[in-house]
Amino acid sequence: MDEIIIRLSMRVDIYQRVEAAAQSAGLSPIDWIVVALQSYLEERADWGSINRRLARLDERVDLLDEVLSRLQRIEDRLDMID
What we know:
By secondary structure, this protein is mostly helical. Helices cover 79% and strands 0% of the residues. It has helices spanning 12-25, 29-44, 47-81. It is elongated and about 70 Å long.
């Protein structure tokens, strides 16, 4: 699985609560945040829908790449004519 980097900023008092919860669970604060985020997303997310949207996005990226490649070839041909 690819690693995703997420930057979080939180108030000191909230971080202190996270740190306390992490210590009581035997986790580092970062590990506790990851577990909490995963749990939240699993409860809230329709992974099938997310995966379908990502697949469509991949198809669009491939199509855009093809279009840009063709435009580059056209531009190269025009440069040769000049």
